[in-house]
Amino acid sequence: MIIAANRAPLRYTEDEGWVPAIGGLATALLPVLQEQGGVWIAMQEDAKAPTRQPYPPEAPDLEIQRIPLSAQERTHYYLGMSNRVLWPICHYMLQHLELERAYMEAYRTVNRRFAEAIVRAYRPGDFIWVHDYHLMLVPHLIRQAIPDANISFFWHIPWPAMEVYRILPWSRELLQGMLGCDLIGFHVEEYVENFLESARYLLGAEIEDNRVLWEGREVRVEAHPIGIDVARFEQLSEREDVRREAERLREEMHAEWLLIGIDRLDYTKGILSRLQAFEQFLKEYPAYHGRVTFYQVATPSRTQLESYQQLKREVDEAVGRINGFFARDSWVPVHYRYRTYTQEELCVFYRAADVALITPLRDGMNLVTQEFIAASRSGVLVLSELTGAAHLLREAVLVNPYDRDGMVQAIRTALEMPVEERIERFRFLKRTVRELDVHRWARRFLEAMQQRPSEV
Fold first, then answer.
1. Domain limits at 352?
2. Could you report the per-residue pLDDT of 2-57, keeping only the tens digit for each?
3. Are strands 355-358 and 380-384 parallel, antiparallel or unpaired?
4. d(C-alpha 360, C-alpha 269), whole Å
5. Domain check: are 199 and 110 in the same one?
6. Which of 226, 245, 239 is nearest to 368 (CA)?
7. I need a surface site. Which of 70, 159, 233, 234 has the fewest CB within 10 A?
């Protein structure tokens, strides 16, 4: 098997050297690749990281290959095309869109380099699995070199409505790139339908059910919702040190109820809107003053981009304004932490919280929702209906993140929910999260990859 993704599945630590990355694709796919043998091809993020790395070193059963990029290529391909063009348009954030020809030129160059590395590594019978919006052109380039290759793609973010996607000057070229696949996976049916409509309208492709008929081939487009490593989060949350820290956190809050928000500091996550809704909640319901505290964790992200720097300033100002107006005695209404936390530390928040406010303005899936359910005892999930997770976690309190009044009422509903209803909702959510487990997701997708068009 050959996996291509922007990032490698290993991270370097001073104590242990190279170890598996925590969470994400590494958790799901590194064991699969070790079992089957093969290659993981990624961007070289650090010049010190080896370009070819057998793993594990003592008895290798796979190889990590890293593609070196110049500083300009990394800036234009990654920070430019990937994060200033594809990321905002797929999340309907057109105000952040920066269309620059140099970005697309670098994107073509880097995608070609990925494809060439895959072709060099390929052996007859290999499965090729490409991941995410950084590598849209790669499947078509592989198909040109290896016509009978079995190529699949998983798209990890939303696929927008055709009328939004078509704004891209290179929309057709990027679509054609992805249609080099045999199978394309998305989180939910909404994204499948949006992709099929894009192929039909922009390329004139014939669509039959969930198949795109393109250049004499069938491309299957399917929903494969991803999950988390459920067992890991359940086990972490039951550790004695995690339980003890969760109790200590609640004591420090000096409040009856603890609300949490856990996000990367990204304009898609709705952190500022969430803070404004909590501010309005405190204005409208003064009886909750001193009784409810909101703890917002914001992990630094893409700090080189001005749009992210501006967001940080706005969030800092909102937190200061809310605390300056409402704080009294030992009660601080908003605790804000701008830093990265380990999974163990996050489980402290999940276990301590009564309510999780997960209200992105748009999100492909949002795995924090599942982490919270896996680690919580019986917490209430307030969830944006504009996430992939909302299609699956129907027992959450669903809310439109653009509706501030609705957000205020959702907070109140979560706090005042009867115990029996809280437990019943949580039970259904827990069952769904276990069914979505990331290891099951990987197995299901691999089974789908093994089906050729004649078998479908």
1. 230-435
2. 999 999 999 888 888 898 887 678 878 888 888 889 999 999 988 889 999 999 88
3. parallel
4. 4
5. yes
6. 226
7. 70
